[in-house]
Design goal:
Elements lengths: L3 E3 L6 E3 L8 H10 L5 E11 L6 E7 L2 E2 L1 H4 L6 E10 L8 H10 L24 H6 L12 H7 L9 E6 L4 E8 L2 H16 L15 E2 L3 H35 L11 E4 L1 E8 L2 E8 L1 E3 L5 E4 L6 E7 L8 E3 L8 H7 L2 H7 L4 E2 L16 H6 L5 E14 L1
Parallel strand pairs: 2-3, 17-18
Antiparallel strand pairs: 1-2, 3-4, 4-12, 5-9, 6-8, 6-10, 7-8, 7-18, 11-12, 13-16, 14-15, 15-18
Helix pairs in contact: 3-7, 6-7
EC number: 6.5.1.8
GO molecular function: DNA ligase activity; GTP binding; manganese ion binding; RNA ligase (GTP) activity
Keywords: GTP-binding, Ligase, Manganese, Metal-binding, Nucleotide-binding, RNA repair
């Protein structure tokens, strides 16, 4: 489908979904965002749903301003995927050992490494810029500097919620590695600190929603936030790269005889800010639950624990600010999912997938998510599908 346009206070709201299918609270959030004085455009992806501050699945283009709550607390959260030389024929009948080895190598949930991972020890890991990256930690907000050691130990860890590590098969039976994570606790603390700063600024006092507080250009607060934001986005990218390095090492050891090789990594943020130019304007584009889908650019759009995911190439649709959805998107809250479904439902909906099937991940049940194939159909003018993947192992925190 192409987009549906709804009227908004300052800009029209372009929606790549049926507005009637979007919850009222999410529609109100979109209307609220469209009232911001700095806004120049708002695009809504088919995985849209209610979120804190701004809807998940929205692309907010502003001039001279950025809203930290719209970026979200998991700064730089995103996906990475790698195609391997392995095929379905290389897989063992019992996948539980492989899942166990992955969980041993990569801490999940609130877990962290006993010692910081040395990227130099990871096979083929590009260490350029690593020391410079950590050297810039000295410039982050004073309020979080005491987290330096924890940030180092959490580098290369999964987290919980919808974060996951998967091994998948594509439609030609090639094995792919895929994972989803962000900037861990350090990103969360940086985000919460800056959201608090923004909400106290005088120019934000008359907003319809205090969560839409912004920083404006040429102020010390904006400079501080941008510095911390871009550092946290880099942390998230490094975090995924280290996890992928650890995951590849597990695959090498477990499939020694097959001597697996790996194609170049595809990686994309889906909670972040980028400086981009549209219609002759330099804009700060916030993608909250959306990926960049510039012409020919690779992206990853995951489903859920028991459904397909997609590797895509962007079509460069400027009406959507070169964006696409970041996944299937939730159709019900975590609490609603826990009330609605049982562990037996989870077992049924993840049949054939080696994964956790207990109450601790019930809120991640596939039934809590929108239909990924329908979401993909709604954004045919945003991306083209390169590969359709189906997981056979899913690791959750």
């Amino acid at each position: 489908m192409s987009y549906v346009e709804m009227p908004g206070a300052k800009v029209p709201i372009r929606m790549w979904t049926d507005p009637a299918a979007v919850e009222d609270v999410a529609l109100q959030q979109l209307r609220n965002v469209a009232t911001l004085p700095w806004i120049k455009g708002l695009a809504v992806m088919p995985d849209v749903h209610f979120g804190k501050g701004a809807t998940v699945g929205s692309v907010i283009a502003m001039q001279g301003a950025v809203c930290p709550a719209a970026v979200g607390v998991d700064i730089g959260c995103g996906m990475s995927a790698v195609k391997t030389s392995l095929t379905a024929n290389d897989l063992p009948g019992d996948l539980s050992r492989l899942r166990s080895k992955i969980e041993q190598a990569i801490p999940v949930g609130r877990g962290m490494h006993d010692d910081p991972v040395d990227p130099g020890q990871l096979h083929g890991f590009a260490t350029a810029g690593w020391d410079d990256f950590w050297g810039r930690f000295g410039g982050v907000a004073e309020a979080v500097k005491f987290r330096r050691e924890r940030a180092a130990l959490q580098m290369g860890t999964l987290g919980s919620g919808n974060h996951m590590i998967e091994t998948c098969l594509d439609q030609s039976n090639s094995v792919w590695l895929m994972l989803h994570s962000g900037s861990r606790n350090i990103g969360k603390e940086l985000a919460e600190y800056h959201i608090g700063v923004a909400q106290k600024l005088p120019h934000n006092q008359g907003l319809v929603d205090r969560d839409l507080a912004v920083f404006v250009s040429d102020t010390p607060q904006m400079a501080a936030y941008r510095s911390d934001l871009f550092w946290a986005q880099e942390y998230a990218k490094h975090n995924r790269a280290i996890m992928m390095g650890l995951l590849k090492d597990v695959i090498r050891k477990e499939f020694k005889k097959a001597k697996p090789t790996f194609e170049p990594e595809i990686s994309c943020h889906h909670n972040y800010v980028a400086e981009e130019r549209y219609e002759g304007m330099d804009l700060l584009v916030t993608r909250k639950g959306a990926i960049r889908a510039g012409s020919g650019e690779y992206g990853i759009i995951p489903g859920s624990m028991g459904t397909s995911s997609y590797i895509v190439k962007g079509l460069g649709n400027e009406k959507a600010f070169n964006s696409a959805s970041h996944g299937a998107g939730r159709r019900m809250s975590r609490n609603a999912a826990k009330r609605r479904f049982t562990v037996k439902d989870l077992e049924e909906q993840t049949r054939g997938v080696e994964c956790r099937k207990d109450s601790g991940v019930l809120d991640e049940i596939p039934g809590a998510y929108k239909n990924i194939d329908q979401v993909m159909e709604q954004q045919r003018d945003l991306v083209q599908v390169v590969a359709k993947l189906k997981q056979f192992i899913c690791v959750k925190g």
